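Form 7-S
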Amino acid sequence: MSTSSEVKRITTHTLQKMKAAGKKISMLTAYDFSFAKIFDEAGIDVLLVGDSASNVMAGHETTLPITLDQMVYHAQSVIRGAKRCLVVVDLPFGSYQSNGDIALASAIRIMKETGAHAIKLEGGAEVVDSVKRIISAGIPVMAHLGLTPQSIYKFGTYNVRAKEEAEAAKLKSDARLLEEAGCFAVVLEKIPALLAKEVSENLTVPTIGIGAGKYCDGQVLVMHDMLGINIEFKPRFLRQYLNLYEEISGAVKHYIEDVKSNDFPSDAESY
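Output:
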């Protein structure tokens, strides 16, 4: 395990070099100090302060309700625990779609108030002007194509995107536009693996997949899904590495039993 004193801060340039060298990029979501510290010390390359906090932290059905204020709070918490990895923050729904001025103001606020290193936003050609405005201010932008959860009511389903030729062609065109606009990476969510392979090979910037197969330059998962905290969500693309729901539930039941039986605290645990 590497420590912060041994490893320099990972930057967007680091990710570019990793792609060039054929080294895969690891990315997870994080929303608080404690998990960010654990993930960072374990060696994760990128932490995403995702608008998925709307689902897994606040219990909403979609990512739409979370506010910019709430994203700033989560990002501030994560930054305090991340000493070496790159920290990217989602711009939430409504904070960038209407025009470039609002998008730039939202991105600047996140960078100034949180200390994060980059922002992420969803969409292709329709947000390129905002992307250019943000990048022109010196703020790195990670793009997001394919299944874009902020547009879930437009899609009407969480099914795989870009299976049809027209949508696949638009995704490829959008990826090129976003790279040309200056994005340092592109998240590809829930698209066919061979399409993700083609996009990854045709871009000079890294691609990060989630449900997009093994040919992307990196992978991202939501921490609650990967750690088995959220046991209801079991899509095909998810590999669950722990069952923390079961572990935590068992520990809490044990604690309750010890309290009820007066076993806790013991004399050794008393002053």
